From TrEMBL:
Ranges that cross the membrane: none
GO molecular function: metal ion binding
Residue span, Peptidase M16 C-terminal domain: 2-73
Protein name (database record): Insulinase family protein
Domain of life, per lineage: Bacteria
InterPro entries in alphabetical order: Metalloenz_LuxS/M16, Peptidase_M16_C
Length: 141
C-alpha cells in the first residue's frame, strides 16, 4: 500500500483499482512484471499512459524513505517466510537455482546494502519502453 505505484495510480489519480510489481528471476532472469487492474470505466490505453508517466517520473519520485520501507518489507517477508520447514526448503531451492544455496545467508546483508542510486540505475536499465511487452487481458462477454 505504500509503494509509489499504489500511491500515485490507485489513491491519488484513481486510474487503477490495484497495481503490483514483481521480479520473476526464477522464470526469466531480468523479467520484471507490473500488474494493474484499471478502475471500472477507465480506458485501458489511458491507464497504460498513466503508468508510463509514473515510470518516467519514478526516478524523481523515489526517496530514501521509500528505499528503507522496501528494504524493511523485503527483510520482514524473508525472515517470517523462514518459519516453516517447507518455506526454508523452498528458499534454499530458489537460491540454489539462482546461484547457490549458501547465498540464503547473505540475502539480508545484500538487501541492507541497496541504496537509492542503485535503484535509479536499475530504473534506467530495466524500466524502458523499448524493451517492454504489454498484455491486456479482457473478460470474454
Amino acid at each position: 500500500k505504500s509503494s509509489i505505484l499504489m500511491r500515485k495510480l490507485v489513491y491519488e489519480r484513481e486510474v487503477f483499482s490495484g497495481i503490483t510489481a514483481e521480479n520473476y528471476a526464477l522464470k526469466d532472469p531480468g523479467l520484471f512484471v507490473i500488474y494493474g487492474s484499471p478502475v471500472n470505466g477507465m480506458d485501458v490505453e489511458k491507464a497504460e499512459q498513466e503508468l508510463d508517466r509514473i515510470l518516467i517520473e519514478l526516478k524523481d519520485l523515489i526517496t530514501e524513505e521509500d528505499i528503507e520501507v522496501a528494504k524493511n518489507k523485503a527483510l520482514t517477508d524473508f525472515i517470517f517466510g523462514q518459519e516453516s520447514v517447507k518455506n526454508v526448503g523452498f528458499s534454499l531451492g530458489e537460491f540454489e537455482i539462482l546461484d547457490r544455496a549458501e547465498c540464503i545467508n547473505l540475502f539480508p546483508e545484500k538487501i541492507m546494502k541497496i541504496q537509492l542510486e542503485d535503484i535509479k540505475m536499475a530504473i534506467d536499465q530495466y524500466l524502458v519502453r523499448k524493451t517492454r511487452n504489454v498484455a491486456i487481458l479482457k473478460v470474454k462477454k
